[in-house]
Amino acid sequence: MPALGADMRDGMLTEWLVAEGDHVNKGDSIAVIETNKGAIEMESYHTGTISRLLVQPMSTLPVGSILANIDLDAETDAGTISETPAPEQPSPQRQDKPQAAPAPAPDEIKAASARAHAITPLASPVVRAMARQQQLNLQGITGSGPFGAILLRDLNKAHQTQQGSDAETPAISPTTRTTDADANRRNQAAMRAAIGAAMEKSKREIPHYYLSHDVDLSAAQQWLSDQNAGRDPEDRLLLPALLIKTVATLLPHFPTLNGFYQNGSFEQAQAIHIGMVISLREGGLMVPAIHHADQLSLDDTMLALRDISLRSRTGRLRSSELTDATITMTNIGDRGCDSVFGVIYPPQVAILGFGRLRQSPQVKNNQIEICDTLTASLSADHRVSDGIIGAKFLYALSQQLQQPEQL
């Protein structure tokens, strides 16, 4: 069972995407894991053949539990799929790993699944969200998945049936609404507790320092307006993509902000994977990474941002997107706050924050001008860098954003 976040303690294996005897490559999706943040596609950490699936779907297990065996290619011995990947970059979940737990017996799995099904239908967060949108009662749907789990195809069939039924028949009973509300409250409580535990650990163990700098974005806003002229709405470039591209361009010159502090020392990351804080509509956060952000064009960065935002809220993310970010960015957008100072996500060593875009007076050439202004902030680990490094980074960020055509 992989650790898909510093706040994850256990997860439910909801679906195998492979069978015994299947050959998989490193990075292939092999299973779906449900956490309190949604359904995540688990990727294979090795290339080889799946020799044995040890755990049945709908089993909840702690991080570190063994799920399956894989016979590795290239004349290597049989390996085990556990929480420890072999990525190019160190994973934020390497520290404080629990020991691998034995897989539960088949009878225990069936009993637990039966108890869970008696309380509420088995369905992933994606299925539940879709059911709410379509006003479908999960209690009345027969699932075709393992142990009767309701799949998306079952929803489509039920939706077609509902459209042909009496329009006056309520799709969701008050009891079902109450049950769903209680489940949402429990999920929210679990997510808040997990986020709180991770951030408490960060504030307790990491000596943060904080810096901020007001950036003149007048030139950047005009440049974006020119670039978007004539584009369809879905193809337009937004300010967050420009911020990501700028940060990714500068990080190679500030390596002590991009990496991990583990086992008493700093390890510089060899790639730039920028984790983006995504606010979920029902509350809580996810932080998927845009991989190799420094190698993407601005248009590709915009596409990647749209993709992970959509999949964070309505679809599946891949396990690597939640485990290998080398630095984090949080963007408050237009939510009325001028600045935001983030808490570092361990074992990363820095997080960048961007407040709302606003108009403010600035002095230029001894004249007062009204400019589009954005406050950029940096929270960094004092064990790895000093304030002068952070100040230089924010100044370079400001200068680069005033010359967006160079990106």
TrEMBL record:
> Entry's SUPFAM superfamilies?
CoA-dependent acyltransferases, Peripheral subunit-binding domain of 2-oxo acid dehydrogenase complex, Single hybrid motif
> Signal peptide position in this chain?
none
Going by the UniProt record, its keywords in alphabetical order are: Acyltransferase, Lipoyl, Transferase
GO molecular function terms attached to this record: acetyltransferase activity; lipoic acid binding
UniProt xrefs under InterPro entries: 2-oxoA_DH_lipoyl-BS, 2-oxoacid_DH_actylTfrase, 2-oxoacid_DH_E2_comp, Biotin_lipoyl, CAT-like_dom_sf, E3-bd_dom_sf, PSBD, Single_hybrid_motif
Q: Where is this region: Disordered?
A: 80-111, 159-182
Q: Where is the Lipoyl-binding domain?
A: 1-71
EC number annotated for this UniProt entry: 2.3.1.-
Superkingdom as given in the UniProt entry: Bacteria
Q: Which Pfam families match?
A: 2-oxoacid_dh, Biotin_lipoyl, E3_binding
Cofactor(s) this protein requires: (R)-lipoate
Enzyme kind, highest EC tier: transferase
Q: Which GO terms describe its cellular component?
A: cytoplasm
Q: Which family does it belong to?
A: Belongs to the 2-oxoacid dehydrogenase family.
Quaternary structure note: Forms a 24-polypeptide structural core with octahedral symmetry.
The name this protein goes by in its record = Dihydrolipoamide acetyltransferase component of pyruvate dehydrogenase complex
What species was this sequence derived from? Answer: Photobacterium halotolerans
